[in-house]
Amino acid sequence: MKKHNFSAGPSILPEIAYQNAAKAILDFNGTGLSILSISHRTKDFEDVLASAQSLMRELLNIPENYHIYFVGGGASTQFFHIPANFLATKAGYVNTGVWTKKAIKEAKYYGQVEILATSEDRNFCYIPKGFEIPADLDYLYICTNNTIYGTQYKEDIDSPVPLIADMSSDILSRPIDVSKYALIYGGAQKNLAPAGVSFVIVRDDMLTKVVRELPTMMNVNTHAENNSMFNTPPVFPIFVMNETLKWIKSIGGVEAMYKINVEKAQILYDEIERNTLFRATVDKADRSLMNICFVMAEGKEDLAADFLKFATERGMVGIKGHRLVGGFRASCYNALPKESVEALVACMQEFEQLHK
Prior knowledge:
- The chain is of the alpha/beta class.
- It has 2 domains: 236 residues, Type I PLP-dependent aspartate aminotransferase-like (Major domain) (Aspartate Aminotransferase, domain 2), CATH 3.40.640; 102 residues, Aspartate Aminotransferase, domain 1 (Alpha-Beta Complex).
- It has 9 helices and 14 strands.
């Protein structure tokens, strides 16, 4: 039976990335060595690293006055790296769910945190808009896509202070204007690579704004100046990331990827709206293209366990909602084929027919 991988992360990656990673595990680039044991100081790997940085710069149209580096530790490490480096007095955070809450908690160790806006009043089913951004903030922090509740920013914010964004779960899924951000970061395990590496895109002027002395590995300059190589980087995830970036370029880049993602999401959201057994949980204007959350319709809640079993038996993997919110979540990351979305829709339609 074909499996359709809707897991929220680690998530589905392009088939070509799997194939090339498998080959490299046995013999990397004709060296006779595995990518799992290759020295990060060899030219072969340095070429991979340079390619990944170059492709990311090209695909996202990253201006020349930005550094790109890759580092271990996961995106959660950046929750405290960001304020440790840049929070001198006060920072503004927009609270859109679990991941911003975690970042806010870490930031409070370093300075004052002002919650400029929150969607907690309606269980994070929308993106706050129209809030004031004080000019005296050290930075403004957002998470552009909420994997748990299924909301997503659709436009880049105009900010009078440095804008920092966690883009772990929607990087390269849609066009962005990088020049509006002082720093973008994310874990790679949604749209880029296996877990184990994070990316950081930081504007050069931010490297001069580190506000305190820090342990070496916590300072952004350490990784920017040493081109991701201050210590041994996550070699294998970076290799897979490079393969994924090559795949995105091959299908037409981020603009083409965005069109595909819009089409996939529309197919599933249309079925959720049409199907009498399900309902969406997020305001239409803010619905994520990456993480599509839904629940049973009112009065049909007792069918939830039956549908999960029904869908699982038909090859749907990872559609159970996050433990904090329940329901269902179909993560439609870049590499998920449209055929998988169509298979889930067919499954929902079949289940509806059985319960008319």
